[in-house]
Amino acid sequence: GPALTADHANAPSLAALGEEASGCKRCDLYRDATRLVFGEGPRDARVVLVGEQPGDREDIAGRPFVGPAGRVLDECLAEAGVDRNICYVTNAVKHFKFTQRGKRRLHSRPNAGEVRACAWWLGAELDVLRPTLVVALGATAAYALLGNGIKVTAARGQVFVPPSGPPVLVTIHPSYLLRVRGHADVAAARDAFVEDLRHIAEHAG
Ligand code: URA
Which Gene3D superfamilies match (predicted)? Predict the structure, then answer.
């Protein structure tokens, strides 16, 4: 995938990387976002969770997965028996991309060029952390980590081993669970997500 091609031989600490990233102009998304949202979590994390991009709440707070999708993620991780505190949490794209609708800022999906530009940072994070498992939450993360040819609906629950870099477990994005309508469908979608997350313990335990 595009994340794993850069040379990070001299990669410094996560704090130094985050500091360096805060001024990033590798693509244009820095222009409208409040700030860059870097990953966070312990230096010795064995598991790295990768989302799509910060949302409205993350853009304001400056931290990944602290909004509604983050709450669902936390609940499902707990249900799967995974402690979020052993995970490093980050995003494929580190600036919030949105379209303005009155006072509301509506999430807008990052394009392939933006994902590729930002993959430099994701690769740098993985080079420092060297996790035993990376979890791709949704299609954007799967593209960043594994490139084209991964369909989340077909690939979910499976672990892929890229030519270089750690194995990648593919699953859905938790925000999907916020969009499903109907009690039975929400419960089924949520159970399936928790089931995918249970693989984390097997591969990183
Ligand atoms: N959705 C994401 O993909 N990442 C976040 O940090 C928050 C919501």
Answer: Uracil-DNA glycosylase-like domain
Contacts of 174 (CB under 8 A, 6+ apart): 69, 70, 72, 73, 76, 137, 193
For residues 164 and 96, what is the distance between their CA atoms, to the nearest angstrom?
A: 28
Q: Rounded to an integer, what distance in angstroms lies between the CA atom of residue 70 and that of residue 57?
A: 10
Domain 2-204 in CATH 3.40.50.620? The answer is: no
Model's pTM, two decimal places? 0.93
Which atom belonging to ligand 1 lies closest to the Cα atom of 69? 8
Answer whether residue 146 shows pLDDT above 50: yes
pLDDT higher than threshold 90 for residue 77: yes
Q: Of 74, 43, 204, which Cα lies nearest the Cα of 135?
A: 204
Distance 181 CA to ligand 1 centre (A): 20
- β-strands 168-171, 133-137 pairing: parallel
Q: Is the CB of 91 under 6 A from ligand 1?
A: yes
- Do residues 106 and 96 lie in contact, with contact meaning Cβ atoms separated by under 8 Å? no
User: What pLDDT, on the 0 to 100 scale, is given for residue 2?
Assistant: 58
